[in-house]
Structure formats: C-alpha cells, structure tokens
Amino acid sequence: MIELIKHGTTIDFMGKRKYVLSFSLLITLLSFYGIFYKMDYGVDFRGGAEIQTKFERNVHLDDLRGALDKGGFQGTSVQTIGEEKDNEVLIKVQADEGNLNAITENVSKVLKTSFTGNNVEIRKVDIVGPKAGSELRMSAVKAMFWAILSIMVYMAIRFDFRYAPGVFVSLTHDIIIVTGVLAFLGTEFSLHTVAALLAIIGYSVNDTVIVYDRIREHEETGDKTKSLTMHINDAVNDTLSRTILTSAATLLVSGSMYFFGGAAIKDFFLAMTIGIIFGTYSSVYVAASTTLFIDELMKKSNNKTHAKKATI
User: Fold this and answer.
1) Which of 37, 126, 287, 311 is the most buried (most CB within 10 A)?
2) Between 255 and 4, whose confidence is greater?
3) Helix, strand or coil, per DSSP, at residue 53
4) With contact defined as beta carbons under 8 Å apart, do 174 and 204 qualify?
5) Whole-angstrom Cα distance, residue 173 to residue 160?
6) CATH 3.90.1640.10 holds for 48-128
7) Chain centroid offset of residue 295 CA
8) What's the rounded Cα separation, in Å, for the pair 232 and 238?
C-alpha cells in the first residue's frame, strides 16, 4: 500500500483536541440553527403531490424541471420510472394544504402547454398531507437513531464499554453537521438525503472501527506504561496513511458523481461528500476524544472509591 505518512510519525492529535472540539461545538450549534430555521423540506416531509405521468415521446428531465419552475411550482422533483422507452416520469410538487386538490390540474395544464405535440397522460396521483409529512420526518429520525444505537451496542460488545459512547457522539455529530450544512446551502431535504445520511453512518463507523481496533491493539501489546492518550496518538498515526488514501478515493468518486452524475443524484452525493469529510475528522477527534474522556471519568470514579475504602 502507498504510504503517504512515514512509519513512526508522532503527531500529537490528542494534544490539540480541546481546540478542535471547540470548533466542533461551534459548528454543531450553527447546524442546529440551520436545521430548525433554514431547512427546506421536500414533498415527502412537507406535504404535496406525487404525480405519475406518461409522455408519448421521450422528454428531457431538465426541460421538464424548467417548465415546472416557470409554472410557479415550488420544491419540484422529477425522476424516470421503469425503462427509458416507457417515457414515464414521477413528478413531486410541494403544495400547501389549501391547494393540494388543485395541484394535479395545474401541473397537467403546464405540461400540456409546455410540451405541445407530446401527449401526456396523468396515470396516478398521490397526495401527501402535512401530517403525513411530519410523521415521515419523525420516522426518518427514528431510523437514524436506531441505526446509531445498534452500532453503539455492537461496539460495546466488540470492544469495550469505553468505546461505545464515542461512536454514538461521533455519528450523531456527523449527522447533525451534514444536515445543518445542507440546510444553509438551501439543499432540499428529501428521502434521498435520508439515504445519504444512513450511508454516512456506515462509512463513518467503518473509519472509527479501524482507529478503535488499533487503539486496543496498542493497549494489549504495546508499552503498558503508556497512557491511553499516547496509545490513541500512536493508533491514529499508524492508520493516518490508510485514512487519507481511503477518504481521498471515496471523495473522488462522490465528487465526480456530484458534478457529472446529473440532477437526480446530485443532492445524495453532496451529502455524501460532506459526510466523508466530517466522518473522517470525527473518527480521529470526536470518537477517540470521547473515549479518552470516558476513561478519565472511570479513573476518577475508581480513585474516589479507593480513597473512601482507605479512610474506612
């Protein structure tokens, strides 16, 4: 394997953790603001209409989006259904509760006006009310929560109790920041975004497991006189070359898909790109720092217990 970082490198990652974690706290607080005040929810989470259409001839999705935007529709999303020759398109349009029933007729008028000579048939209409959208938002949050919790339990069994909270904190940190950044960028939060966040959870925990495994290896076979801080620094330095190469390769793919993959998958890979950056960073600083914090708490608790026994 290509070794970008020479063996024996001794960068003091944990020595800088207070400054880096302060940065993380600031970004997390800003992300919360973005989530609560800047988020642009898609049809699935806000409410609107899903309209399945069939065109007589092939229609370019960019032209279809442009026609809907000119028609004054907000939060539109279009995607093909089935094989290309079927010319079937699923259109999602945001709408308020008061005009949900009229939205289909308005979309039909815009399509017939914009694509004269290309007959369009409305095959199916599904209305998503605001209440259903709210329930779907909660379901998405629950899905991510249970995914993180399950991984946390696995880490506690696979490694040690000290490691489990670090996984929970780092994964939650990644999800909040990615969602917050998307909110500030004005990216629509849709089911594609939820899929990206779940993928980020898997990617980030993989990085964290690599670091944790090396920390445990250093604790078991390394110098017993070294502190956990030194073991973490050694472990991160040992895996640094692998981390940089893996993240760079994944970023190359996700970045390429974002710029050249088309509008249908653009939001997904934007979230993935942001998640890879913060997932790599959190594996080193957030997860490992939390483990170090838990270890220090356990040592203080044990010292107090021993002190009480000594005074009895």
Assistant:
1) 287
2) 255
3) strand
4) yes
5) 21
6) no
7) 28
8) 10
Q: What does DSSP say about strands 188-189 and 40-41: parallel, antiparallel, or unpaired? A: parallel
3-state secondary structure of 190: coil
* Residue 134 to residue 151: CA distance in whole angstroms: 26
Burial class (CB in 10 A: 0-12, 13-18, 19+), 245: middle
Q: Enumerate the CATH 3.30.70.3400 domain ranges in the chain, comma separated.
A: 48-128
Number of H helices, E strands in the chain: 10, 6
- Where are the CATH 1.20.1640.10 domain residues in the chain? 14-40+132-311
Average pLDDT over residues 67-91: 81
Q: Is the distance from CB of 181 to CB of 274 less than 8 angstroms? A: yes
How far apart CA 170 and CA 172 sit, in angstroms, is: 6
Q: Which residue has the tokens 């898609």?
A: 42
Q: Cα–Cα distance between 195 and 148 in angstroms, integer?
A: 14
Are the CB atoms for 291 and 232 separated by under 8 Å? yes
Instruction: Report d(CA 240, CA 221) in Å as an integer.
Output: 20
Residue 195 burial (CB count, 10 A): 14
User: What would the pLDDT profile of 190-208 be if each residue is shown by its tens digit?
Assistant: 888 889 999 998 888 888 8
**Pair of tokens at residue 253:** 């793919």
Would you state the pLDDT for residue 31? 95
Residue among 170, 167, 193 at smallest CA distance from 180: 193
Domain 14-40+132-311 has CATH 1.20.1640.10: yes
Could you give the residue ranges of the DSSP H alpha helices within 222-287? Answer: 228-260, 263-282
